[in-house]
Amino acid sequence: MVSYKVLLFDFDGTLCDSQEQSLRIINTLADEFKYKKINSEELRDFKNKPLRDVLKQMKIPMVRVPAIVYRARNKFHDEIDSLEPIPGILNTLSHLKDSGFELGIVTSNDQKNVEKFLNRHRIRSFNFIRGNSSVFGKAKVLKSALKELRVRENEAIYIGDETRDIEAARSAKMKVISVTWGYNSREILVKSKPDFLVETPKELSQVLQSE
Fold first, then answer.
1. In this structure, which topology does domain 6-17+84-210 adopt according to CATH?
2. Within 10 A of 73 (CB to CB), how many other CB atoms are there?
3. I want to staple 161 with a disulfide (CB 3.0 to 4.6 A). Which of 3, 13, 185, 208 is the partner?
4. What is the rounded (10 degree) CA torsion for 157, 73, 188, 209?
C-alpha cells in the first residue's frame, strides 16, 4: 500500500473557525447583490445541503458568484485578526508535521488572508499554500498542486469540511477526509461518501497515522 506523503487542507471551517464571520459578511453583502439575508434557522438548513442547492435557494445566479466571493474575500481580510484556529487543530498539525508528512493548503479564500492568519498564530506547519480558487474550482488547483509537489494522486489526500471538497478530491482522483466540525453537517457528508469521516482533530491524526 502506498502511504500518504502530502496532506492538503481546506482552510475555512477545517483549520480556521470562521463560520460566524462568514455569515456576517454574506449578510453584509446581501443588499449590494440583491439576495436574501440568512438567519440562524436557515443556516442550520443550509448545512444539510450542497452549496449549489444553497445558491439556488438564495436565488443567487452562478454568474454573480465570482463577484460576491471577491467582495467577501476583501471583507474577510478585515476580520482575520479576530479569527481563531479550530480547537485542537494546532497540536494535530504539529504532530503530523513531526511525523514526516508534507502539509499544504488549497482554499477558495484569498492566499493573503490565509498567510496573515498563519502568521498571527505562528503556525509554521505548512510549506505549500494555494488560495483564490474559484468556489467550484478546487479540483483544478488540487491537480496543479500534485504536479508542483511531484506526487501521485494516491500519495496525497485532501481534508475538508464541505461536500464540494469531496467532489473536488474525486475529480482530482485523490482520497478525501471529511471533518464534521466545519460547515456541512455530518449527515450530508456521510451521504457524499468520503473515504474517511472524522469527528475531532485528534481522530484525524489517528486516521492518518494508521494508513
1. Rossmann fold (3.40.50)
2. 18
3. 13
4. 30
